[in-house]
Amino acid sequence: MTNIMIESPICGLTRTSTKDQDGESTLFALKGYAERNGFTFQEIYFDRGYSGCNTDRPAYQRMLEDMRTGKFKTLIVPKLDRLGRSIANLVDLMGELKNKKIRLISLGDGVDTAQDDPMTRAFWQMLGVFAELEAEMIRMRVKAGHEVAKANGQHIGRPKGSGDKRKRSVSGYQLRYKGTTPEQRKLGKRGI
User: What is the CATH number of the domain that holds 78?
Assistant: First the structure.
């Protein structure tokens, strides 16, 4: 699949959807890949009996923590659906992996983020499309919610008029260009 050296430390991640599944086939795929390429896993994160839509999986959460603290450089999964089945969560995770410069290899999907090949480029482009779609769907739901609230006579946004008596800090533009005293405001800039 790849001719680029795999950077250590290397971890694997897989899961099963039900407790009845033993996960042997996915573990076998990971271990076989490691053996063929001459490396050993620092750790294989394995969750038994968890849906891919559930990100509150113990091993998955441990992997996220280890990723964020830089405990591995390469993450290998048997297939992308072992990471998760929620597009939003997958997009977030992929963005985080990319920002941390962690290589992802998906054995069954032909995705290797270290490669510059058509499959990997298409993968990143599709993730971008799904991220944009998800953001647009959220915007539409928020707008629809606002319309329903307005139709029901609810106020949207900050409180109006005298009901809003909270003191707000004055900073930035106001301090630089309007001054802090009436004399300075007449001059247009704050005197230093």
Answer: 3.40.50.1390
pTM: 0.63
Please name which of 114, 88, 115, 85 lies closest in space to residue 101, comparing C-alpha atoms: 114
Domain count of the chain? 1
Long-range contacts of the stretch 129-138 (C-beta < 8 A, 24+): 130/87, 130/90, 130/91, 131/88, 131/91, 131/95, 134/87, 134/88, 134/91
pLDDT of 190 > 50? The answer is no
At residue 112, does pLDDT exceed 70?
yes
Dig out the tokens for 178 from the structure.
């309007």
User: Coil, strand, or helix at residue 14?
Assistant: strand
Q: What is the extent of the structural domain holding 68? A: 10-127
CA pair distance 24, 43, nearest whole angstrom = 16
Q: Are 74 and 81 in contact (CB under 8 A)?
A: no
List, for residues 68-83, the tens digit of each pLDDT value.
999 999 999 988 878 8
- pLDDT at 192 exceeding the cut of 50: no
List of residues 6+ apart from 57 with CB closer than 8 A: 15, 47, 50
Q: Which of 8, 17, 25, 51 is catalytic?
A: 17
User: Mind listing the pLDDT tens digit for each residue in 121-133?
Assistant: 787 778 767 767 7
For this structure, is 25 an active site residue?
Answer: no
Helices (H) and strands (E) in the chain, counts: 6, 5
